[in-house]
Design goal:
- The complex is a heterodimer of chains A (383) and B (183).
- Chain A is built from 13 helices and 15 strands.
- With 383 residues, chain A is of the alpha/beta class.
- The longest helix of chain A is centred in the middle third of the chain and has 18 residues.
- The termini of chain A are far apart.
- The mean pLDDT of chain A is 97.
- Chain B starts with a strand and ends in a 5-residue tail after the last helix.
- Chain B has a 6-stranded mixed beta sheet, with helices on both faces.
- With 183 residues, chain B is an alpha/beta fold.
- Chain B has one domain: Pyruvate-ferredoxin Oxidoreductase, domain 3 (3-Layer(aba) Sandwich), CATH 3.40.920.10.
- The mean pLDDT of chain B is 92.
- Chain B is globular, with a radius of gyration of 15 Å.
- In chain B, α3 crosses α4 and α4 packs across α6.
- Chain B is 38% helix and 22% strand.
- The chains are: A alpha/beta (383), B alpha/beta (183).
Chain lengths: 383, 183
């Protein structure tokens, strides 16, 4: 460890620990949370490590307060994060919406377990994917990432912080118990090799600053409390000064921009992994732990002479509609294994728009798919 | 997946089964620069109950991280032995602590007995039985180098117990050599 508390090199880490280290590497210096299996180890690791890097760890009274504290820390100038699982994620929804409305950079990690309700606390699930997109009220767009290994939890947590600063919103890391509790080799680069997006500070003097005048990419610069800039933030619909304006016109202007700043930049945001799509008859579309389980089925199918491609969502929201639509033109079907009763499969089906079939392979949670069930669906799809 | 080497350690909570799994995975990755996945499974209890550590070691990236039937099954409690003995292949190497496990299943492969618990007690610290087991496993399987496992042990145990843990490893290793392993 260096004198600044930064570590680098090869480590054998759980996904939860890798996530926490990714946050620290991205410059996160504030964590507020409430313990919940299987995300507790993220909080534990942050409580050990944040003091070493001069940061602050607070265990809050619940998840509502945790999310509120994270928003406050961000407005105070720190990169801030919380981590939770299904039940806590539900409780955070209101303040995630506040974060979207105030345009507050921060990161929320959801180590998914099997729900609904308390469900199977120690066992895996992917049932919160639509909640990630639509869980808070009102129209908005969001960014959510899905890592498939502890290394990716490290890398994508950094990416989540960078996207949150670039587009000024809470960014969600939608992982699962399977990855959070899995140990693998994680390579942590030296500080200077890690790309960090700094906060977009105002580029005008304090007397000319209007908090919600956006730059060309629709994202406004953000003043920090105590740096001489006056600002006012509210969850009410507001104008460029940040003051409440109760009209449909102000609502249209603000909410349209909140959605457009993500949707018009979607090509810059979206990241996917593809393998063997060209010439494929069927494509397995998956994410997170399910994508790793699907690789076994894909290898077995290829050994049987079936032309099957792999399409892995790394960014789950915004969803890569255009790319899925393009792939759909040339294949018979998408096979979508996910540990829920069909969530991202609905997006695949919507994007494919009838050009290719969408075959959902649901799993109610508590375990991953048997690769054979995915293989059976692949065989069915090419018939 | 043919190049994967799959190790399953099982016992009851509190025996250090999970730490042993971590030490193996860390030895393979950090000290041998290979790939490994370590997954743990345990009941709701902090002590007692069957627990399991699965480690997959490979020279390639491990895509599928789960074990169906391991190359090695090492059991340190009767309950865990009975739970996992059905999930082996004909050529699975089964190792048991002879004082803690009575092999019952008639059609299971004949296990290799070893006295991890007894050796740990002789060393004066029952808690190092898991490291005795690691020494035995290292000698029998040759899946990892002695140096890598030793370095991983030292990086994982409290500093003032380093010497004791290395003795535990050596004793476990030697007990395997006595049985003719490591030739």
């Amino acid at each position: 460890m260096s004198s600044t508390g930064q570590i680098s090199g090869e480590f054998f880490l759980s996904g939860d620990e890798a996530c926490a280290e990714g946050a620290l590497a991205a410059g996160c210096r504030f964590f507020a949370g409430y313990p919940i299996t299987p995300a507790t180890e993220i909080a534990e690791h942050m409580s050990d490590r944040l003091p070493e890097v001069g940061g602050t760890y607070i265990q809050m009274e619940d998840e509502l307060a945790s999310m509120a504290a994270v928003l406050g820390a961000s407005w105070g100038g720190l990169k801030a994060m919380t981590a939770t699982s299904g039940p806590g994620f539900s409780l955070m929804m209101e303040n995630i919406g506040l974060g979207l409305m105030l345009e507050t950079p921060c990161v929320v990690v959801n180590m998914q377990r099997a729900g609904p309700s308390t469900g199977l606390p120690t066992m895996t699930g992917q049932g919160d994917m639509m909640q990630a997109r639509w869980g808070s009220h009102g129209p908005y767009s969001i960014i959510a990432l899905s890592p498939a290994s502890p290394q990716e939890l490290f890398d994508l947590t950094i990416k989540a912080f960078n996207l949150s600063e670039k587009y000024r919103l809470p960014v969600l890391v939608m992982s699962e118990e399977s990855i959070g509790h899995m140990y693998e080799k994680v390579t942590i680069p030296t500080r200077e090799k890690i790309n960090i997006t700094p906060r977009r500070k105002p580029n005008v003097p304090p007397q000319e600053y209007l908090p919600y005048v956006p730059d060309d990419d629709l994202v406004p610069p953000m003043a920090i409390a105590g740096e001489g800039y006056r600002f006012h933030v509210t969850g009410l619909t507001h104008d460029e000064r940040g003051y409440p304006i109760m009209t449909a016109e102000a609502q249209d202007k603000l909410v349209r921009r909140l959605v457009d700043k993500i949707e018009k930049n979607r090509n810059a945001i979206i990241e996917v992994e593809e393998d063997g799509i060209k010439g494929a008859d069927v494509v397995v579309c998956s994410y997170g732990i399910s994508a790793r389980v699907a690789t076994v089925a894909i290898q077995r199918a290829r050994a049987l002479g079936i032309r099957v491609g792999m399409f892995r969502l790394i960014t789950v929201w915004p969803f890569p509609v255009e790319r899925v639509r393009e792939i759909a033109k040339n294949i018979k079907a998408f096979v979508v294994p996910e540990i829920n009763y069909g969530q991202m499969a609905l997006e695949v089906e919507r994007a494919a728009a009838g050009r290719a079939k969408t075959i959902l392979i649901p799993h109610m949670g508590g375990a991953v798919h048997d690769p054979e069930t995915i293989l059976d669906a692949i065989k069915q799809a090419v018939k | 997946m043919a190049n994967n080497y799959e190790i399953r350690l099982c016992g009851y909570g509190g025996q250090g089964i999970i730490l042993a799994g971590f030490i193996i995975g860390q030895a393979a990755t950090v000290y041998e620069h290979r790939n490994a996945v370590f997954i743990q499974d345990y009941g709701p209890e902090a002590r007692g109950g069957a627990c399991r550590a699965d480690v997959v070691i490979s020279d390639e990236p491990v895509l599928y991280p789960y074990i169906d039937t391991p190359d090695v099954l090492m059991a340190m409690s009767q309950e865990a032995y009975l739970k996992y003995i059905p999930q082996i292949r004909k050529d699975t190497l089964v190792i048991i602590d002879e004082d803690l496990v009575k092999p019952e299943t008639a059609n299971a492969r004949k296990p290799i007995p070893m006295p991890a618990r007894r050796i740990a007690v002789e060393l004066g610290r029952l808690a190092v039985a898991n490291v005795v087991m690691l020494g035995f496993l290292t000698a029998v399987t040759k899946a990892l180098s002695v140096d890598a496992v030793k370095e991983s042990i030292l990086a994982s145990v409290p500093k003032n117990t380093g010497k004791l843990n290395l003795s535990a490893f050596e004793e476990g290793y030697a007990s395997a050599l006595k049985l003719g392993a490591g030739k």
